[in-house]
Amino acid sequence: MSASRVYLSTIGRPLDPAEAAVPVLDRGFLFGDAVFETLRTAAGRPVAWEAHTTRLRRSAAGIGLDLPWSDDELRAFVDLTHGDTGNADSLVRIVVTRGVAPLMLDPRKALTPTLAVLAIPLELPDEAGYVRGLRARIVDVTRAPASALDPAFKTSNYLPNIQGLRQALAAGDDEAVLINPAGLVAEGATSNVFAVIGGVLFTPPISDGILPGITRAAVLKLAGDLAVPAHESSLHPFDLRAAEEVFLTSSVRGPVAVTTLDGFPVGDGAEGPLTNKLRNAYQAALPGL
Predict the structure, then answer these.
(1) Is 70 exposed, middle or buried (0-12, 13-18, 19+ CB in 10 A)?
(2) Which GO terms describe its biological process (predicted)?
(3) 273-283 pLDDT, tens per residue?
């Protein structure tokens, strides 16, 4: 039996999400004044836990939000919530808001952060789904510049990503690829982007305004271990359209092939050999990440 549960710091125990609530004056609800991490478990254990908590703390520090919980306490909340679901494995979302405050923009009145840990059944593509891949579209929504909001901070301000995804979905596609203000490829709405060009693996550098993805870093390390030539290098949209292979990475699904881009097949329209090689290597390494 599988289920969804949410732990709230204001309640202190896991609940059915339909029963859980935060006050309407919580700044996460009012302003998106919050940071979060999304991860998965493997054999019941959070994958890349240290990397996720490090990024959560970096994001919180970046918006001036103090986290009163230790990493061990956060892990205990995740284990408790996942364990209460009965799921073999879960998708886990950790959200920390600045907390409740008067209805004004000034954040100084918020004294106590709110923590929510949500665990839901983990749903992944089957082997045929990974081979079939995703339909992606390069949209005209730009990633916010670092001068507005540092892309290294994983915050709840996701409207540009949502707008880009809406545009892709309206065209019948599965995922959006956003560009940066310079017109270069940035990232997917919920993923990092890789391309295989001339047998070499490319992914946009952090300096192009992308989130430093945890799975992105793992794939780059695996590429090095497998002697796959890889470069962090700026990509133009036309580079992506001309690539032999394109794939996206995220903490939940790992590497997933893009087999259609802007309505045209990528390569032969199925998962490419290098994408397959890296996906299999990632899945084999997953329990130890």
Answers:
(1) exposed
(2) amino acid biosynthetic process; carboxylic acid biosynthetic process
(3) 999 999 999 99
